[in-house]
Amino acid sequence: MLMLGGGPALTPFNLEKFAARAADRQIALGACSVCFFYLVDSGRPLEPDEIQILENLLDASSESVQELVLGGDPIRVIPRHGTRSPWSTKATDIARHCGLSSVRRIERGVVWRIEGAEGREGSRSELISLLHDPMTESVVENVEGLEQVFALQSPAPLEVVDILNGGLEALAAANEREGFALTHQECEYLADAYLEMGRNPTDAELMMFAQVNSEHCRHKIFNAQWTLDEISQAASLFQMVRTTHARHGEKTLSAYSDNGAVLTGYPASWFLPDPSSGEYRQIAEPLHLVAKVETHNHPTAISPFPGAATGSGGEIRDEGATGRGGKPKVGVTGFSVSDLRLPDTQMPWEFPRQSPSRIASPLQIMLEGPIGAASFNNEFGRPNVAGYFRTLEVATHEGDPAHRYGYHKPIMIAGGLGNIRDCHVHKQTIPPGAKLIVLGGPAMLIGLGGGAASSVDSGESAEALDFASVQRGNAEMQRRCQEVIDRCIALGPENPMISIHDVGAGGLSNALPELVHDAGLGARFDVNAIPSDEPGLSPMQLWCNEAQERYVLAVSPENLDTFKALCERERCLFSVVGEACPETLLRLASVETSGESKDDANTHPVPVDLPMSLLFGNTPRMHREGVSRPRAYPDLDLDGITVSDAVDRVLRLPAVADKTFLVTIGDRSVGGQVVRDQMVGPWQVPVADAGITTAGFDSHTGEAISMGERTPLALIDAPASGRMAVTEAITNIACAGISELSDIHLCANWMAAAGEAGQDADLFKTVEAVTLALCPALGISIPVGKDSMSMSSRWTDNGKSFSVSSPLSLIVTAFAPVADVRRSVTPVLDVSGESVLLLVDLARGKQRLGGSALAQVYGQVGNEVPDLDHPEDLCGFFAATRRLLAGDLALAYHDRSDGGLIVTLMEMAFASRCSIEIDIGKAQDPLAYLFSEEPGAVIQVSKDELDRVHKIFEEEGIGSWVRPLGAASAGNDSIRIAGNGEVLLESSRSSLHRTWSELTYRMQGLRDNPDSTVQEYERLQDLSDPGLSAELTFDLASNPATQAILGGARPRVAILREQGVNGHMEMAAAFDRAGFRAVDVTMSDLKAGCQHLEAFQGLAACGGFSFGDVLGAGQGWAKSILFEPWMREQFDTFFSREEIFAFGVCNGCQMMAALKELIPGAEHWPDFGANESGQFESRAVMVEILDSDSVLFRDMAGTRIPVVVAHGEGRAELDQEVLATLRKRNQVSLQFVDNYGSMTGRYPFNPNGSTDGITGLCAAKGRVTIMMPHPERNFRTVTNSWHPGDWGEHGPWLRIFQNARAFVD
Known about the structure:
Layout: E1 2-8, H1 12-24, E2 32-42, H2 48-58, H3 65-70, E3 75-79, H4 86-97, E4 103-114, H5 123-131, E5 137-140, H6 143-147, H7 163-178, H8 184-197, H9 203-212, H10 215-218, E6 225-228, E7 231-232, H11 237-248, E8 252-254, E9 261-263, E10 267-273, E11 280-286, E12 288-295, H12 297-302, H13 304-320, E13 327-337, H14 362-380, E14 384-391, E15 393-395, E16 403-406, E17 411-420, E18 435-440, H15 450-453, H16 463-469, H17 475-490, E19 497-502, H18 508-517, E20 522-526, H19 539-544, E21 550-555, H20 560-569, E22 574-581, E23 585-589, E24 608-611, H21 612-616, E25 623-626, H22 643-650, H23 660-663, E26 674-676, E27 679-680, E28 685-686, E29 691-694, E30 702-708, H24 718-733, E31 745-751, H25 759-778, E32 781-788, E33 792-797, E34 800-805, E35 809-818, E36 835-841, H26 853-857, H27 871-886, E37 892-895, H28 901-912, E38 915-919, H29 926-931, E39 936-942, H30 946-955, E40 962-969, E41 974-979, E42 982-988, H31 989-1007, H32 1010-1018, H33 1042-1046, E43 1052-1057, H34 1064-1073, E44 1077-1082, H35 1083-1088, E45 1098-1101, ...
Parallel strand pairs: 6-25, 13-14, 16-34, 20-23, 31-32, 38-41, 43-44, 43-45, 45-46, 46-53
Antiparallel strand pairs: 1-2, 2-4, 3-4, 3-5, 6-7, 8-9, 9-12, 10-11, 12-17, 13-17, 15-16, 18-21, 18-22, 19-21, 20-22, 23-24, 26-29, 27-28, 29-30, 30-35, 31-35, 33-34, 36-39, 36-40, 37-39, 38-40, 41-42, 47-50, 48-49, 48-51, 51-52, 52-53
């Protein structure tokens, strides 16, 4: 084993944060250093030149090992024993692509050297708990332990449970020991079945049965028979849900039978590479919608980062595995946790902490979980465009201090919207003889028993089983899988995939049987064919582990070579593991033992040998008895509370407060089809009501997605909370240009602490209220959903029992096709003329405060909640808003929800940086008027159109409930609210905005570089900030490539991607629009000689995460070229050609910068390092195009316009001498500027901290241009988060692609 010492593993500010955490535990630290080290396993001793390549790749040295790793008594942290890290997979890939074929595996560890940590006994063990996550990491106390990282282990044995001799008791004991979570009835069912077969079950069979039949997978409660208050109920919960589709399913193409629902989309064009030529082309056909929302609550409670990451990854796989292959497009993420209890900032409504040690704190969840979800989305290449965040922790109505309502077991929502071709909506029937394939990553000992673990309350399973159930994500591997699926999608009717299923809970033991069971078949599997990175896995572990980024699918033998070629091109692992057979039997064995007789079953058992009917058959059906339990909280006591005091508290409540810290960590523009994300307006404030996308790159049809949840109401009235969740999702999505209410489809995620007093009854009544009453009244359906029935945490402390249970929680996500994405409206107010703000009150004057933010911030609950008493009003409201959008009558729009009307108005003012003056008139209770969270919305209309607007509302039946509130105005800095003839609130808008943004400021300060955090917070005090703007030095309507295009030629540009790149579609679309033939080219194409750069006039290296950025952003990609002679020569020759151009964006920019030794004149280009903020940054920022030699920026110098950035490593560090040289050579093309147009180093205007804001450079006489921002995502006007109203179809960023076309004429 070779060992290398590496560089620093943490930034100075992160070391300071660690020291602060240690101080919280009374551990005083002295000097502290933390560095990476690397362990390398190879098939033979490496030659000196090979070691030199490794040191170059890893930025490491063998000479520093003794000092860094071996000497003294440091704390060494490595990937968890028995596992292989995703980092290792990708780093090893890079090494092999660089010619190091004998390298079998590279692993990375972290070594801590800490002085002064001996303040008290036990401090080292406490430090160790701070320094590593036991779910994914291990601590090695001695050097000998490092040798075990690569030690080969023999496979663990297959185990059997002796039912033949031990009977039911033996099975019950195994159930408890292994955490199967089987009910007593299921144990009896299995014991009887095996006794009848005359053999003992294997642990693989029992674990498989436990996962397949877990509450998580089988939804036993939703399929149960019900008795409510001693009255037998005719329908199950799921049957009630299905009635919505039966009544209103005419616009749904697939429901309840697949990984996601499929909804009818509008005609548009798919943009796909031709399977034979690789040239991108438009295919005119509908882009149907794939809709799915998942939860990942239990893993996020145990280990927030990997739990949330794999939650997002699992939902993405659901979309990809819908039908015969779907394409994920945009995502949503949501979190519900108990009180945050920020250090030194505990809010007056927060309880003292009371929680078990085995789950993460709410603060830890919200510091790590959102980063996990965002990182997976970012690396995979899916923008996150909507979400929610709620905190709740309150006393029970009985007042027992040992029991609370809250989210110690959090809700982690991961949802999304994708597209699917018409010919792929339905899976085909698998025929006998079909090859059964595992696509994606290898098996690993992670996530074992996750389906069962997530089916029980936190605290009920053993801590070791919680540990085993946590998964770990590898988004770059999943990206490769999706590229294979995308290539199958491009084949249309010739798609080789007959059927595809994602691998989730239960691993292969659930996915493969489900795949063939749907076709009424059985299957034979070869246990030795299952790809594995860990030879020590037992057959049960191999079959049942939940290693992520895997799919199972069926392919006909005659199409196997086609599928194999696609996988090899994308460097995606796959294995034929079995074959479908007509006998409905399931057999997992090695090829050598596959023919053994049944007589050998007890003496030489195979891992699995079962009839399918036992696995999926007639297991005992659950029966639930719900008993209603009235809850009587005290009446609200709000005497003496002023509007000013109430606002000060409510704006700090996380459900209300600024969510910027959750938004900017996630890429919201990748794919180039996002019209609306969370941020709105020139100042980019996160108050959008819904996410909106275009259907393709050449149409204005599209899709919309929104969320709704009002879970605190369920503390008092669960059915009302369900109705309000649906209502909020609809009033949110109403901002989009949807044609009619029936176009909206819902995903319902139901969560409950099943078995807790009153919760079963709450669940039944809420499902009944939403599905049998509200949905029929609205004419909409719920074609997809998910349930999680174990929302309790229980523990004991000093012999006393404690618990925290969630209220009944319905999280609703709304999906809809959009007729015209341009007919959408945001909360940004128009202050260019006289206007009126209208309140549309869907509560008909009721102002109930139970379960409101106002009640919560005063430590109360109340007893009368908001509700949608008249569904017909919501129908009228939606119809009226369609007419307003169609007539351009709605200038701004924002729904009323958390915090009430006053928050709705303030968020509109914050987004617009304007003043508002409001008069609510005579109000019996001004607090209730302003803070009640009844359904409704505020709409801004022109004063000249007021009569016309009123007439529309009258015609739709809700005119009586539309009331003028006041107006917005430019200038000043005030919010003034009057009522009953007196001023209720008068304050500066900016000070209220700072209060609203305080949560983001504090959370970013705990998580990111505190200096950056302060700079962002301080910008709210700049009342003159003009926001984003556009100043063009060229005519937007002209096209410098017109003459070239008229010549009829379409030059070929290589849209180059390495594994992990995710920005190629939008890059191809931009070049296609400019008149090029954009060709999909992979690095494997070039290496195999299938493509050669000599055949192209241009090269575009795209954004993403090549090799997961494990060796530095873009570095692995570049070094796989530099250290491979054939590739080096090809790129060297290309860059030297005088007639070509090359363009590198983001990851492509980083890669080309690392290739500077091959690019003429690029020797002074910088490398790009980690952002100064220490965080991934996704923002719309201002840039200035400088006078340079770049052929792409010709005649654009002086232009200042917004552009999106999305990167974690974009900081260009240049000393002033080098920078002066670059400027003198006319090589600096682009720089960040602030909103005043001045070059800036301030965050977030300069989002990565680059010297002088440098973010674009050129070389080779201007033929090669690199930049960190993403112009290819903004070439259409509609995909700009903010833009002037006079831009047409194309934004100014199309000009650089047109300039490229003019150059190659």
